[in-house]
Amino acid sequence: MRQAIRLFLRIVFILTFLFIGFGFAGYVLAEYSKNLAGKNKNPVIMLVRPGDGDNSISWELYRKNIISNRAQFFIAKYSTLKPFIPKIGEYEIPAYSTLSQAMDILHSGVSLQHKITFPEGFTSKQIISLLNNAPYMRDQIVVIPQEGSLFPDTYFYTRDMSRHNILERASQKFEVTLAELWAKRKDNLPIKSSREAVILASIVEQETGKQAERPIIASVFINRLKSKMPLQSDPTVIYGLKTKGVVPKRLLRKHLKQMHDWNTYMFRGLPKTPISNPGFASIQSVLNPAKTDYLYFVADGLGGHRFAKTLDEHNDNVREYRKTIATKKE
């Protein structure tokens, strides 16, 4: 009886020793597997799709050179108390990431962010073209939104997001920004509504790329509206011609005489619609213009503009502009 007890105790001791030994060896192997740097020399992209399990994820880690064999993944996952639940999404795994780092990224659910930028002064048609050609999104935009309704900015998105999501954000941001700026506008402006502010801002946006000039150019148009003078803005004429399918290489006198809803040489006041999607600075400039007596401006040939209070001063500035252009051609 005693021998049987002794034999039993020996067996228990040996099994306990083996269990502890294998457990320790498994722990060491798991930690080694998790912390062994991958062989991916560059960042790699991993997709976790609906239905992806341990088998597909281990294969993907192997193909991306993050692990040298699939057993590393299974040892690492099942030999640790730390949970690993990969989330559906697209992830960027940095170069030479350890398995532990890669698993943390897949477990986090923080998907890779792509971005698209809508430049200031783009028409709605141009913005939709950019959006429809942006990669990794679904759903094409068919209907062109109203001109002057999309806020120029950079928008972030994840793979397989609908393009309508970006469009809705751009529209909402425009409405919110416009409402905030409209509430802080100067008094006694010849602008009856926020929509009229957008129309004028879209013209200012097209007239200059210099932010410092925008409040001054806005003041010229504001002064003209107050004086019942035509705005006489070339970009409005060009926009109107484009709506008719005419894209002139150079704006000629005959173009200024063609009648359409955007020809600000032929009528007083604002054109029918905005001619682009203006940015924050242009809208702010229209609602808070510089205080000037200017009624005219012309390009200076150097990227800026010259401003004038009278027609005689303006004609002098035009002659200076022509001289500058002539000098450049020599």
Written account of the structure:
This protein is mainly α. Helices cover 49% and strands 9% of the residues. It is built from twelve helices and eight strands. The protein has a two-stranded antiparallel ribbon. α6 runs parallel beside α11 and α7 crosses α11. The longest helix is centred in the first third of the chain and has 34 residues. It is elongated and about 120 Å long. About 5% of the residues have low confidence.
Write the layout of secondary structure elements.
Blueprint: H1 2-35, E1 44-48, H2 54-63, H3 71-78, E2 89-93, H4 99-108, E3 114-117, H5 124-133, E4 137-138, E5 154-157, E6 161-162, H6 163-183, H7 194-207, H8 214-226, H9 234-243, H10 253-256, H11 280-287, E7 296-299, E8 305-308, H12 311-329
Parallel strand pairs: 4-6
Antiparallel strand pairs: 1-2, 3-5, 7-8
Helix pairs in contact: 1-3, 6-11, 7-8, 7-11, 8-11
Considering the chains and any ligands shown, give keywords for the structure.
single chain; 330 residues; mainly alpha; Dna Ligase, domain 1; two-stranded antiparallel ribbon; 12 helices; 8 strands; elongated
